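User:
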Amino acid sequence: MMFPTLDPLLHSELRLAIMSLLISDVEAEFPYIKEQTGATAGNLSVQIDKLAAADYIKVEKSFKGKKPCTICRITPTGLKAFEDYVKALKSYLDVK
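Assistant: Predicted structure:
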């Protein structure tokens, strides 16, 4: 049996955690993602940039008063990639 390839972009623990949060919450602010994942701000920024470059998420930067606000949303491309990743992972688990 030939197993499907797991998307290397989603196979990273932190990127998978970011996508998992966005799947359930649709959108999330940077501090919330940071708190939920336990990642450092620098590492989280790098991983968010990688997901955005692949069009898996959309990043919107604005201000709330004088404070910067970064909101991440999953894109249709990201949703499909996540669903495909979960399907591929399940195929590994369903082997008897």
